[in-house]
Amino acid sequence: MNLLIVLIKIFLMIAFLMTMAVLLTWVERKQSAVMQDRIGANRADIFGLRLLGLFHPLADAVKLLTKEDFVPPSGERFLHGLAPWIAFTTALAAFAVIPFGPPIHLFGREIPLQVADPPIGILFVFVITGISIYGVVLAGWASGNRYGLLGALRGAAQTISYEVSMGLSIIGLLMVFGSLSPASISEAQGGLLFGFLPRWGVLVQPLAFLVFFTAAVAETKRIPFDLPEGESEIVGFFVEYSGMKFGMMWLGEFVEIVVMAALIAVLFFGGWQVPYLTPAGFAFPGGMMIALPRGLILGMQIAAFLGKVVFFCWLQMLVRWTLPRFRYDQLMRLGWKGLLPLSLLNILITGLVLLIGGT
Amino acid sequence: MKEGGTPQKTLTFLERFYLAEVLKGLWITGAHFFRNLLVHTGRALGVVKKRRGAVTIQYPEERRPIPPGYRARHRLLRREDGSPKCVACMMCPTICPARCIHIRAAESPDPTIEKYPVEFNIVLDRCVMCGLCVEACPVDAIRMDTGVVEMSAYDREEFVTGRDFLMESTPADERAEAEE
Ligand code: SF4
Ligand code: SF4
Questions:
Q1: CATH 3.30.70.3270 occupies which residues in chain B?
Q2: Atom 4 of ligand 1, residue of closest alpha carbon
Q3: Which DSSP helix (H) or strand (E) runs through A111?
């Protein structure tokens, strides 16, 4: 029975992630177009029906599936095939510890709305994103292409540099909430700060949020941190990929965006928490109470979580279509001389405040 | 500083810090996003009529108007009796920088005219649309006012336009009038 529940949850999670990723390919085209006063891809149609270009992902899928799957003769066949799987599955797996909503009670058992809730959930995410570097490095190396290798090296250097700041930036947060499990971090953000502000991570740890967000964008290897890809100069670590293998790399990137958005939502924006919504209904700071039925509250909380994820996907797209790419030295300077000291400073300040404040 | 180079603008601390600049940039693009989204929705609902959410011209369906004087595909003019106005003086092939006009002249049956073109080929895939042929013509026999800007073909031979084809082309404004 437990296994069945977990399987259902895994299925739902993958379905959610894939839908989001596919939709994001459409959003990326359309959002960039709207931002740049264009119309964007709208030509794919079924019987003359265009639906704002929503069929383009479908057309992409058909194209990618029917394309030749080419392995360069100088490449390593096995590793070349393995790399997209690593990139893709690690992106999916990281989502396993993200709680969609509060635990629900169904047929007398408590079902947490997340695939797995290990006590070290956050570490799990970092471990998985750490492994995902292998996808990049293997892809670059197994292609037997110098440009691919260059991209892979850049990718590895960048991911490692930013993973440090990313990990350190949330330590302050972990100190405040006293837990490594995303579920209890979400839970803890339901409280109030000074009696009227929601106790969200971003209000408790604004500096950490900035560092984390920057590092998260760098982790997804998109503009302004797209040096591993560097479309205009080296094409990147997946230069020798075609067909569905490229498709997996590409979709993996979008899944990663969703995962990062979810992670930011869970860590800094209360996860599934709606401000002032308690398990009994709304409780505003003035003492006003609005009681609500259980199901509605649950629905609102899940919707809040999804809304936050969608918002942060949107924000990442906005950043991607606004900023120019960093130069390599700027990238390294920002990582090691900017974000790293800032995250260390954040730990120091948090520690001092906790020591003095006692909470 | 390198000699002769333009002096670099030194960045202020805030600009170096980059965050404020990032936010400024995001503000601009975000404002574009929301404004255009609003206009798009307004147009879809029929509320907004005048403003457009995008500068896109959806090409095969929508076209940019071709301004007068635009150098489009050539045409050869005729006399009243339908014979070519061109007197095969070879001015245009001489001036053509792309050397893409090929004329074979013959004696004109009309005693007042010396020569006329038996063949008049313009190789369009070589033509650079400079309009010098039009300028050079002493008798105003060639013009580039057809308004045809789409010149495409599946092989090179199709780009060689013959005399009769050029004579049959009509100017764009005439066609527009005929449509009205
Ligand atoms: S437009 Fe210029 S290039 Fe073309 S035929 Fe005339 S002179 Fe030659
Ligand atoms: S310049 Fe005019 S008249 Fe002379 S050959 Fe060309 S088109 Fe004919």
A1: 75-179
A2: B127
A3: strand A109-113
Tell me the pLDDT of chain A averaged across its residues.
Answer: 87
- Say how many CB pairs under 8 Å bridge A and B: 42
B contacts of A34 (beta carbons < 8 Å): 32-33, 36-37, 40, 53-54
Backbone Cα Rg of chain B: 27
**Whose atoms come closest to the Cα of B85: which ligand?**
2
Residue A35 has its nearest CB partner, among B33, B40, B55, at: B33
| B22 at interface of A, judged by CB pairs closer than 8 A | yes
Q: Which atom of ligand 2 is nearest to the CA of B93?
A: 6
A-chain CB neighbours of B43 within 8 Å are: none
- Phi, psi for A105 (deg, rounded to 5): -105, 120
pLDDT digit string (tens) for A273-292?
888 887 777 877 777 778 88
The CATH topology of domain B75-179 is: Alpha-Beta Plaits (3.30.70)
Indicate the DSSP class of residue B65: P
Whole-structure pTM value: 0.84
Exposed/middle/buried for A7, CB within 10 Å: 0-12, 13-18, 19+? exposed
The answer to whether A204 and A173 have CB atoms below 8 angstroms apart is yes
pLDDT value for A289 = 79
For the stretch B120-165, pLDDT in tens is 999 999 999 999 999 999 999 999 988 888 888 999 999 999 999 9
Give the span between the Cα atoms of B88 and B92, in whole angstroms.
9
Residue having the nearest C-alpha atom to atom 5 of ligand 1: B127
Cβ atoms of B74 and B133 closer than 8 Å: yes
Compute CA A128 distance to the chain's CA centroid, rounded to the nearest angstrom.
12
Please indicate if any CB of chain A lies within 8 Å of the CB of B97. Answer: no
User: Cα–Cα–Cα angle for A319, A324, A328, nearest 5°?
Assistant: 115
Which ligand sits closest to the CA of B133? Answer: 1
B1 — pLDDT class (breaks 50, 70, 90): very low
How many C-beta atoms surround the C-beta of residue B126 within 10 A? 15
